[in-house]
Amino acid sequence: MAEVIRMPLLSDTMTEGVIAEWHKKVGDTVKSDDVIAEVETDKATMEVVGYVDGTLLYIGTEKGQAAKVNQVIAIVGKPGEDYKALLEGSTTSNSTAKKEEAPAPAAAPAPAAPAVDKAAAAEALKNATVIRMPLLSDTMTEGKIIAWNKNVGDTVKGDDVLAEVETDKATMEVVGYADGTLLYIGVPAGTAAKVNDIIAIVGKKDTNVDVILAAEGAQGAAPAAASAPAESAAPAAIPAAASDNGSTSSSEGGRVKASPLAKKLAQEKGIDLGKVQGSGDNGRIVKKDVDSYVPSAAPAAAQPGKAAAPAAAAYVGGQEGYTDTPVSQMRKVIAKRLSESKFQAPHFYLTMEINMDNAMAARKAINEVSPVKVSFNDMVIKAAALALKANPAVNSSWMGDFIRENHHVHIGSAVAIEDGLIVPVIRFADQKSLSQIASDAKVLYDKAKNKKLQPQEFSGNTFTISNLGMMGIEEFTAIINPPDSAILAVGGIKEVVIVEKGQFKATNVMKVTLSCDHRSVDGAVGAKFLGTLKGYMENPVTMLV
């Protein structure tokens, strides 16, 4: 069955996108994770993934031309398959419409029949849109539904946020790009779904969703079992919000409508979102609403004392216990990727000591004139970027049958967040000044901690730096972050006493350890890279010319 690829909504202000490049042409084989096109929006140039396997049958918008959001830009299906009916009904058909030649009279549904009624499914798809779990990061294999913002039976607009999905990188919003009624929820809140699985169906009321699900290969009993519980699944996920009598226009059907960032800030500040007035679309609570919220006075002073007493009484000295914490999507991917790296890439380690006296003096002088505060980590990023240009063999990736030597330098800087670890990427770091690196790093680190990084901001690294010096760690070894060939572990600056020309002298030193993939980087190559890095850090003025 052929499937329609539509122009996605890639920013909150986007109304149309210009096709900057097609990566596939008609007749080419397409995989579900292939980037089929690059689209220029009002904010940036972004990649479009088809999420389907097959052959590219049709391109509806040529390179350089614009297409409205939700307009058909391509069709993928079986070689030689007739897709014209999909184009004729594209104004009402959905993004994954399956082409079947349906007879004029609609066939009566036959639940007991073992065969799938493809004609009825095609007819139903003309009035409904299937919403699938999107691929929201390059390493994502599944997503966990954190919350549904709509219930079965609710009216849905094309730009409404249907659900919030936790991926391995961040919590992101899913937009349906379709108008109609929410007919079906296939994945309850708190449950994970594989990429491309059906998570919802939107369309005209009374559309038969059972035949659509049956056509997907679902079991006959699955649609009936999933529809009814799905209605109660969303409100059950937030009983506290549903029972709050103080909810305002930001609450609809018992569910508080708020952005992921607003929810996180409210949780950190202990604010009940049910009492916050939303200023966003349809009363949705956004960050500024939480920041400006002033709680009304309430006689709650006695409550902490009442709560503390049973907590103290419940404790029994010497009692054994444990807590099982479900593994987040981010932690699953960290475990998988780093295990693969550690056990597939033969690591070896090189450690070098760097005199930081000149770097400390240079940083002080730089910060007197820099528009943003430059950290030692920013200086390490700049020095590493220049050292990679001088030693390109380290700026490489093991590709199995060949070694890819990158001509650009994208430095990943590991950041610890509540759920694990993420690596924002500072692109073309060798071409940026220290103040530009510091500014980019600050923005990326803030986004990382608020789970607001976009896929292009945490992918594409050619080298990674992990710095634990600010935590008092003198030296450590890091696991290589694929697809890089090396990672630099940076320790803290420590004052030590050395002997110089027969005299004792206090100096500041920093230890760095380079973890290398021996398949693509040899010991001498790694040592030369560290020597270059040491030269830049011990004489920082050379980074400025």
UniProtKB/TrEMBL annotation:
Reactions catalysed according to its record: N(6)-[(R)-dihydrolipoyl]-L-lysyl-[protein] + acetyl-CoA = N(6)-[(R)-S(8)-acetyldihydrolipoyl]-L-lysyl-[protein] + CoA
Cofactor: (R)-lipoate
Pfam families noted in UniProt: 2-oxoacid_dh (PF00198), Biotin_lipoyl (PF00364), E3_binding (PF02817)
Entry-linked InterPro entries: 2-oxoA_DH_lipoyl-BS (IPR003016), 2-oxoacid_DH_actylTfrase (IPR001078), Biotin_lipoyl (IPR000089), CAT-like_dom_sf (IPR023213), E2/Pdx1 (IPR045257), E3-bd_dom_sf (IPR036625), LAT1 (IPR006257), PSBD (IPR004167)
Sample GO molecular function, one term: dihydrolipoyllysine-residue acetyltransferase activity
Domain (Peripheral subunit-binding (PSBD)): residue spans on this chain: 257-294
Cellular component terms (Gene Ontology): pyruvate dehydrogenase complex
Keyword Cell division tagged: no
Superkingdom of origin: Bacteria
Subunit structure: Forms a 24-polypeptide structural core with octahedral symmetry.
Protein name (Swiss-Prot/TrEMBL): Acetyltransferase component of pyruvate dehydrogenase complex
Organism encoding this protein: Chitinophaga skermanii
